[in-house]
Amino acid sequence: MTVTANPPRMAFGAAPPGTAGPAAAARLAELPEVEAIVPSPPAQQASVDEVLAATAVTDVLGRLDAELVALAPVKQRIREIAALLVIDRLRSQVGLASERPSLHMSFTGNPGTGKTTVALRMAEILHRLGYLESGHLVTVTRDDLVGQYVGHTAPKTKEALARARGGVLFIDEAYYLHRPESERDYGQEAIEILLQVMEAERDRVVVIFAGYADRMNDFFRSNPGMGSRVAHHIDFPDYSDGELMAIAGLMLGAAGYRLAADAVPTLREYVARRRGQPRFANARSIRNAIDRARLRQAGRLFDRGGVLDRSDLETIEPADLLASRVLAAGGGPDPGTAKEG
Ligand SMILES: Nc1ncnc2c1ncn2[C@@H]1O[C@H](COP(=O)(O)OP(=O)(O)O)[C@@H](O)[C@H]1O
Ligand SMILES: [Mg+2]
What we know:
Layout: H1 22-30, H2 34-37, H3 48-55, H4 57-67, H5 72-93, E1 105-109, H6 115-128, E2 137-140, H7 142-145, H8 153-164, E3 168-172, H9 187-200, E4 206-211, H10 213-222, H11 224-229, E5 232-236, H12 241-255, E6 258-259, H13 264-275, H14 282-304, H15 310-314, E7 315-316, H16 318-322
Parallel strand pairs: 1-4, 1-5, 2-3, 3-4, 6-7
The structure holds adenosine-5'-diphosphate and magnesium ion (MG).
């Protein structure tokens, strides 16, 4: 095929002097852009700053830092993935090979360590950097993928993948897909379909497997094909008491509340005790505790009645925390009936 270059179109379609006329101008306007048919040679330089400005990814990374306490290794991995994609774009700008990397991931850690929250941010980053078309997150568990009867699993799994296409499929407690103890397990069928799509459509959907670290390791050991297709294994550690206090501060601030000075040690005591009780869920337990403290604060102010000032309305007092069963006299609640609060 030969490509014939047209004479360059005049800037803004203006007719050259002497040839002016509406017909000439209209003909000129119809000429295709020269750049569209003659590929320009690849640039010799590409600018990181331009890509960062165009994608606003620095903004997402900055918010990740500011809005999530701790998680330094997780933030570091996200930065590395963002850097990989930025450099990949620059490589393609200067004409170097740029094969889209595989970005399926596993997020392992105990409940409430931020896996879902980070997956949402990851989807946004992958979208901004042009890796994913839309950047939405579809969260599923085994029941959304695996049917009860023969012939039900494939349509369910395919439907979930279709919903996630363009974004991220987040499979929570992914190891439940694999049930070695049951003879006729349709989970294996879901795994086969996932494997196939993870390979064939790796640039159209990113799969993130989430759950407890030990069970996930067993899952990948029993399904080596799956493990080998996961490019990034990211571990979410438990938060320390101090980190949970900082998370509480962030959550309270975001909701327009603050702790009274003498409520700080009360909350610290709460955090330390809650950790030792059943169903402790890291930052989620903190969010639940704050929700309940807000309820108690509202009840306290409501009962008091009269005129309330701004400081009354925004302050969580020790009493709002002390009413919690976690801090009730006599130590922790009966493990069988323990509830957060
Ligand atoms: N590092 C963190 N900083 C601030 N809030 C956090 C952090 N990690 C988790 N959270 C909050 O704790 C709650 C539980 O987090 P989530 O992402 O659902 O945990 P997981 O998916 O690991 O169970 C959410 O409300 C989330 O916003
Ligand atoms: Mg979660």
